[in-house]
Write a structure and sequence with these properties.
CATH superfamily: Ferritin, core subunit, four-helix bundle
Order of helices and strands: HHHH
Distance between the termini: 49 Å
Helix content: 55-70%
Number of domains: 1
Largest sheet: none
Oligomer: single chain
Strand content: under 5%
Number of helices: 4
């Protein structure tokens, strides 16, 4: 008897996973670059956080690639869009990071829509990653606020 898993559109799911792979790899490059461009008295904790983000992005890229191959696909060798604004003020860097996190979150939601009620394995993976991305967005938003500001930056 066929399972609900057989009803997923493997090609669309593989496409979404490859987009996620590319976005996560772009995040690795971005966060490493950003960490190299931070100066000032708060440099040490900020670069530590950014390099942790880069490491986490590498792990997320590997997970997406593993899902691609599990579905019989070929992992992308591309890297997502890399934007170099040449503006290295910490607020500008965090704004770029926030944009990237939001784009990645949108793709995880796209994946979730493709697999919901069809594959518990992929659905739980997508939900886990959405949770992490939403946490990252909240962290970056708080980092961008002025000390004492309670309201999100938008």
């Amino acid at each position: 008897m066929p399972s609900e898993h057989d009803k997923i559109d493997s090609q669309k799911v593989i496409g979404s996973l490859n987009t996620i792979l590319e976005l996560e790899l772009a995040g690795v490059v971005r966060y490493l670059h950003y960490s190299l461009m931070v100066f000032g008295h708060a440099r040490i904790p900020i670069i530590g956080w950014m390099r942790n983000q880069a490491t986490e992005g590498m792990n997320h890229a590997a997970m997406a690639g593993e899902h691609v191959t599990s579905l019989g696909g070929h992992p992308s060798l591309n890297i997502g869009k890399l934007v170099e604004s040449h503006k290295h003020d910490i607020t500008q860097i965090l704004g770029e990071a926030l944009d990237h996190e939001r784009a990645t979150l949108r793709e995880y939601y796209n994946l979730l829509a493709l697999v919901v009620d069809k594959s518990v394995w992929l659905e739980e993976y997508a939900r886990e990653q959405i949770t992490l991305e939403e946490q990252h967005i909240a962290e970056v938003d708080k980092m961008m606020r002025k000390p004492g500001a309670l309201h999100p930056t938008g």
